[in-house]
Amino acid sequence: xxxxxxxxxxxxxKRGQNVTFRCDPISEHNRLYWYRQTLxxxxxxxxxxxNEAQLEKSRLLSDRxxxxxxxxxxxxxxxxxxxQGDSAMYLCASSLEASTFGSGTxxxxx
Amino acid sequence: xxxxxxDPGPFNVPEGATVAFNCTYSNSASQxxxxxxxxxxxxxxxxxxxxxSGNEDGRFTAQLxxxxxxxxxxxxxxxxxxxxxxxxxxRGYNKLIFGAGTRLAVHP
Lengths: 110, 108
Description:
The complex is a heterodimer. Chain A is an all-beta fold. Chain A has no helices and eleven strands. In chain A, the strands form two sheets. In chain A, strands 2, 4, 5, 6, 9, 10 and 11 form a seven-stranded mixed β-sheet that branches. The model of chain A has no long low-confidence stretch (mean pLDDT 92). In chain B, a hairpin with a 4-residue loop joins strand 7 and strand 8 (70-75). Chain B starts with a strand and ends with a strand.
């Protein structure tokens, strides 16, 4: 385990479908973050877990978004009833102090 | 006002040039500060942490002024491989807050 792993790397979905992304953090990191990044912008914070507890959610995370981290290990981010505005790169990061990012999942909603 | 603001890019510089990026942040309670580098269509990667005393890593020097809420990054002797987007990052209580990034293009 040399880094943060995300899959899938790319996802194309039709508007209205549900999608789920997975993140496997660095094993000794207890903090896990989800971010979203669109072209020309820095990553925007979505949510944060310390171990299995979800401690903070951004107001960007509408009711259609849900994240889980069962047992404090891997995490999933689900988007229900996708909209075109959900198209973005979804980045997962884990940390002790500075964060290490996964390669991201690029979502395209058509 | 954005929580972290950076110089708008792009910066186009010749190889060997010295280039400086600036960043300001709005939350005086911010705890830690970083510069990340992001290559096109890749994830952000930590370049260096930023300390109040200033710190240097090879050709890169970072400075923090807590009183002015200002962070800087200086790159000396630019290389073609330095071409990337540089993200100024501030840690709040639970999360990292990113600036929009400044694009650097180093040309021969």
